[in-house]
Task: structure prediction
Amino acid sequence: MPTEISTLGEFGLIRHLTENITFQNKSTLYGVGDDAAVLSYSDNQQILVTTDLLLEGVHFDLTYVPLKHLGYKAAVVNFSDIYAMNGTPRQITVSLGISKRFCIEDMEMLYAGIRLACEDYGVDIVGGDTTSSLTGLTISITCIGEGEKDKIVYRNGAKESDLICVSGNLGAAYMGLQLLEREKLALAGKGDDIQPDFSGKEYILERQLKPEARRDIIIKLREAGIQPTAMMDISDGLSSELLHICKQSNVGCRIYEEHIPLDYQTAVMAEELNMNVTTCALNGGEDYELLFTVPIADYDKVSQIEGIRLIGHITAPDLGCAMIDRDGQEFELKAQGWNPLK
Amino acid sequence: MPTEISTLGEFGLIRHLTENITFQNKSTLYGVGDDAAVLSYSDNQQILVTTDLLLEGVHFDLTYVPLKHLGYKAAVVNFSDIYAMNGTPRQITVSLGISKRFCIEDMEMLYAGIRLACEDYGVDIVGGDTTSSLTGLTISITCIGEGEKDKIVYRNGAKESDLICVSGNLGAAYMGLQLLEREKLALAGKGDDIQPDFSGKEYILERQLKPEARRDIIIKLREAGIQPTAMMDISDGLSSELLHICKQSNVGCRIYEEHIPLDYQTAVMAEELNMNVTTCALNGGEDYELLFTVPIADYDKVSQIEGIRLIGHITAPDLGCAMIDRDGQEFELKAQGWNPLK
Result:
């Protein structure tokens, strides 16, 4: 039997969801339970702050996204932004707007996902706000992290001749989303006992439903002594993000289609859907891979790191931003990624 | 002519709203435009973080709340939480979920209010997220501030025999809300040219529509050398907040009805509406006054500060929490303030 949230009220629900939270970071002094959380960072660390607002029907569809996965993802996408500054996430605040459709057990699942992500990445939940909403679920997470002075990486530091690198592979999360949307349509109105067959497509589904932030890549770069000149995470698509870096760094770029990393399942799914897999990799969002540039002098070091692919190089600004396809033709890069306000 | 938001898109809108932002705090190193903002606080300062989620139809009604006022209030309520820790607000992030109903000019008004509040209180806008929403307007603001080590005031430090103090007066914002609701009903369907007459009620309207955070009181307490033992801001009503302090401090309290500060307009409006003005002061929310306790040894100092009223004292926990009315009768305090999840 689902338990109505009104039986606990605002403060009861917050207590229920946040009880037994133990802190993993010495920078966390005081968490949930007062007007504000209290943190303490040392003079050597700079503080990073990022925030994401997720709205039901715009950013997620609960007909196929389990609440625990949603909670995990909502937290991880914020961690990803902190790693993309070459930092380490330490604390989050979690604000929820909850419509009458949801029960306490639903919020327990959502919070279980958020807490799991926090455990995995060593992040503390230190506060938030919980309220009712007239329609749907609203999730607003703010993440606070730290970065060493002089080690923080911005988007605006790419230099001519720098190498352009990406972690992992691209387009998988978008293909996972397309698959989920297709099955949702196919199964609409057919009853709950018919379940879609996702065998052989587990990887792209996981990339969509339970993405990870690339902490491992940040650690590998540090261990290799590589300081990227520019970096960001790929949430709106490679094209769009690369244009951000080039614009803010006042440079151009050339990337090579044949070097864009793709997973086998991504390619298979694109073919099934009659889509161009390169287009999916360029414009599909939510991969949360890292896009970064390194000086050409780091070529040997960076090319030895597993999970990092060199896809091109930075040019003078007047050369513009383009991809060279497998036939050697140049195509101008355009920001066709997901734009929530178009 | 209203301009559709889609003409700018997400990044264009953010640029448009945040251009020309200049920073007022040396702790703000980098603001909008990267994966995260970058801040730098000194070792002597602890960092305070608070967040608020405001949803249209739940927290505000745009039929009578101007967008500029809404922006101002949305920022100020967060500043109030930082002051309530005896801290100073320094940065905010602003996340907006915007439905198709809104145009660019609407968002300019909202942002003008947020920016005005930031100017007034010396706070920097350093980031946020802007996205579409299916229904209504969503505003999520996170505020970061600083407090001196050993000067931060929690809710849990109230001691037996401490004096209970409040700033300003109570119930005014709630009476302002009742007035707006009454006029909304009275004017429904009567056309835009009929405007309600609010003369003589300006003060309670301003308390509802454009509240201020009590920075002045925090400064006065510091100047007088008074360190409160417990403090919070009154957002859900005096009763509810006092119960928080007593529960978290493990104490009881006695407050005196005759000492609860009321404004004349609050009393007049309560009478017009046939409401008990004390009940409004105890349970009406959104006053954003400060509720705090000080050691009895500070009696002389605190009673000389203009704008602070002593309303009672802290007792042993077994005496419970009660108000003594004008006839000397005791009534147990109950948390009947606004509960968004009931």
Summary: Chain B touches chain A through 73 residues (CB under 8 Å). DSSP finds ten helices and 13 strands in chain B.
